[in-house]
Amino acid sequence: MSDSERPSERLRQGSEPQWGRAVHHRFVDELISGEVADEVLAHYLVQDYQFVDAFTALLGAAVACADRPDSRRVLARQLGVVSGDENDYFDNAFDALGVPSAERTGPQRAAPTQAFIDLMDEVRRSQDYARILAVLTVAEWLYLDWARRADTLPERFEQRDWIVLHNNADFEQWVAWLRAEFDRLGEQGYPTAVVQAFNRAVELELQFFDAAYVTLAPSL
């Protein structure tokens, strides 16, 4: 099967132009070039950090709902990655960018942040393995796609390491497995709910990048 014939690739193509707009977003351009403003990166990372709990729960649901023992083991191993290297990066980046402790864990959430958390919670509660994988696949594959654009890396670690976290051999292997697993579930076509979850996740990823440049109004 060629890549263009894969079920996951057909879904990705169907999500255009949003997928391409996210991968080639201004934020990605500025991050790769090292020109992203500190306040923009800090705002983006604080909002992204709010996904950790919901994403971990979603991975846990995938472990519980997987239809094969081998799949459970792969997904369970990935839980350790989320709570390991990526969490260490957030702590170090927040320190470097001067983000106060309270802002790291209890910020005002941007609308796309809350919407993505709601989507993850919704598909987790559905206990539908294919819907869960749809959202996981978008979240990881789209990030690999944009991170692969980096021919060179910025010098500052808080910029560089965010790219490296999403463009390395282990992450590529993880995304390749996710796609293959998602392809397996879509061999006979995906139910409408799965397609909708995939497309909604892509749209929210794009909105999330847009929101990095939006200053939130103080809460009343």
Provide the CATH top-level class: Mainly Alpha
Low-confidence stretches: none
Number of strands: 0
Strand content: under 5%
Mean pLDDT across the residues is 95
State the domain count: 1
Rg measurement, Å: 17 Å
CA(first)-CA(last) distance: 55 Å
**Share of residues in helices:** over 70%
Apparent shape: globular
Succession of helices and strands: HHHHHHHHHHHHH
Active site: 205 (proton donor)
Keywords: Hydrolase, Thiamine biosynthesis
Family: Belongs to the TenA family.
Organism: Kushneria sinocarnis
Layout of helices and strands:
Blueprint: H1 7-14, H2 18-23, H3 26-33, H4 38-49, H5 52-65, H6 69-82, H7 85-97, H8 101-105, H9 111-126, H10 129-147, H11 157-165, H12 169-185, H13 192-211
GO molecular function: thiaminase activity
Pfam family, one: TENA_THI-4
Domain Thiaminase-2/PQQC: 16-213
Walk me through the structure.
- It is built from 13 helices and no strands.
- The chain has helices at residues 7-14, 18-23, 26-33, 38-49, 52-65, 69-82, 85-97, 101-105, 111-126, 129-147, 157-165, 169-185, 192-211.
- The radius of gyration is 17 Å and the shape is globular.
- It has one domain (3-211): Heme oxygenase-like (Heme Oxygenase, Chain A, Up-down Bundle).
- α5 (52-65) packs across α10 (129-147), α10 (129-147) runs antiparallel to α12 and α10 (129-147) runs parallel beside α13.
- The protein is mostly helical and 220 residues long.
- The mean pLDDT is 95.
